[in-house]
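Recall that a protein's primary structure is simply its ordered list of amino acids. Everything else, from secondary elements to tertiary packing, is in principle encoded there. The following example makes that idea concrete.
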Amino acid sequence: MSEDHYHKKTLAILVGGGPAPGINGVIRSVTIEAINSGLNVIGIYDGFEYLSKGDSSHTIELRIEDVSRIHYSGGSILHTSRVNPAKSKEMLDAAMKALTQLSVDYLVTIGGDDTATSASKIDQLAAGQIQVAHVPKTIDNDLPLPGNMPTFGYQTARDFGFHIVQSLMVDAATTRRWYYVVTMGRKAGHLALGIGKAAGATLTIIGEEFRDTTISFETVCDILEASIIKRMAQGSNYGIAVLAEGIITRIDQEELRNHPYVNLEKDLHGHIRLSEIDIGRITKDEVRRRLRERGINVTIVNKDIGYELRCASPIPYDCEYTQDLGYAAVRYLLSGNSGAIVTVDKGQLIPIKFKDIINKDGRINTREVDVDSDSYQVARKYMIRLEKLDFEELKNVARYALIGNMKTEEFIDRFQYLTNDPPVKERKEHKEEKAKSKK
């Protein structure tokens, strides 16, 4: 190596969390701009996995010719990991030691809220020795970016999911069946709603519609069952329901814990592994059981889509967006700054300091779907779900009850609460307490 090589500063890139379309685009953009600015660039494999053990050997020098066309591809050439160095002081110290051994001057992390939290801890520990910038990534679109900008990867995931649901809608109409499609979205229902609204799904259920209330599993099944009955009343015995996996976090965990198909295992960041809870299967089985007990046979198929979306080839939107983000991260660092999430709004670089976005629990606040927004209200207007208007005329309710093989009073008692906001059914024990207090 030439003498000049040893005087160059080094920028390192790592990827944490689940994959998202566009990761390679960020790696490419950061690498090209950094090298053109006179830096050496190294890629760190598998996120913080090896760094948190003090191991600095899992790296590769990145050159422009290595990355010039990787932005077309899904996945991550540097792989990824969910290992959380912020879990202990020992792991953080080990990661800092490994970065020091690599002579890293600048660190760009690519990931979601957990990776951002880890990056902020490294920034604090480095105290200026290493300057840190984070590029936000998640198909869940749940990070609070300025101007309501999406997180990169979301638009590609939505596009890919849209085509899957669109195809399933044709299949549902052809074969006269229902599909329960579960999408990723741990804390927010943006992906489910974005796919469902764009594809014209029969209905979409997201956690935010229950607001901050813990609900019963029965409530989710009531929504689905009622939509099937209403759809049958309109002359159609098929449809598509899109479910955000995050609705699991709104359901009483004790109720879930006793279900035979539920495993409440947690990941390295302390989150319930939502992918291990087959919400599609358990809702399908319960709704089908109810209908069959009343002599109604409906074919329901559950399908999860999520892993198919994470490594899809990015659409042009994300190819362009990630180029802006990667460039912005390098310019931010080379301007002498550190400790921020790098975002772009209206073509302008907008850094958000970690300290301004990470809450008292050490996590980034979640951007949820605003269920009071006009956009969500439009989505609801085009869903087939029970509404207050359905209960205004008794003959209308009686028709639904007849189709559902129920008595009118039974139908009202079972489903009318779904028209409330939030749609939470009063528990039996609460009803009994109220009854006693009135005596």
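The chain has a mean pLDDT of 92. The radius of gyration is 25 Å.
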